[in-house]
Prior knowledge:
Blueprint lengths: L1 E8 L2 E8 L4 H9 L17 E4 L2 E4 L12 E3 L12 H8 L9 H16 L18 H7 L10 H11 L5
Parallel strand pairs: 1-5
Antiparallel strand pairs: 1-2, 3-4, 3-5
Helix pairs in contact: 2-5
The structure holds FE2/S2 (inorganic) cluster (2 copies).
One FE2/S2 (inorganic) cluster binds next to loops.
Amino acid sequence: MDADITLTVDGAQQRLTVDTRTTLLDALRERIGNTSPKKGCDHGQCGACTVLLDGDRALSCLALAVAHDGAEITTADGLAADGELHPVQQAFLERDAFQCGYCTPGQVCSAVGVLDEVRRGWPSHASQDLTADPELSHDEVAERMSGNLCRCGAYANIVPAVRQAGGVQA
Ligand code: FES
Ligand code: FES
């Protein structure tokens, strides 16, 4: 069964007809041609497909496109505005937080989501005090980014990059 949907992807409105079984990841990559989110596992285990879905980070391989008709999606490609890198992208560059880069668009989108969740005061499994404002400690960032796997093992630089983007001088 097909359905007509509209998605706003990196600021551009896209109308498409999708099989109702189409994942958001496949709609983005195969139908719209936005290959910024990557297909790693296609099973919700690696984070390579992470995008911002109506402002929150989400695994696009686990989302059905039809369930998000009307949604606003930002991929890592769409984070850079007017030729300026997003602070998270800049921090990844400065901290050399990647090797092959395959996981990087997902890491960057996830990091943007993490910084927003921290700003909103959401605790994580690593938070000692669930009522206090979370701090961007190494453990907090590592825990919050733990859904994004890096096959190259660039974690030693990814965590400092996320902390730097969050304003921590380390
Ligand atoms: S491709 Fe979506 S979590 Fe791995
Ligand atoms: S930089 Fe290669 S998988 Fe992360």
